[in-house]
Amino acid sequence: MAKKRILVACGTAIATSTVVAMKVKEMLEKRGVDVFVDQCKASEAPSKASSFDLIITTTPVSGVGDTPVIRTISFLSGVGMEKDMELILEKLGLK
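and the corresponding structure tokens:
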């Protein structure tokens, strides 16, 4: 299986996206998924989208073409993480 590429976007690409990126990477690796996770500001997502299989964001993003987007705060709040992880796996074509 090819390495999956996920872009995590938030308002400033500092704290929020770091927390989300770490949790997503950890949870996917525990499931045996080979994954590369990067982070950016939401405003940068359109210019980076085509290089990624999925964008996970905590704030609205647009202009990302055909790259699937999941908007969630579950990886910050802890509520609904497993449900969102199932959606991530589905969007990555792993389910």
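(Above: one complete record from the training split.) The chain is about 35% helix and 20% strand.
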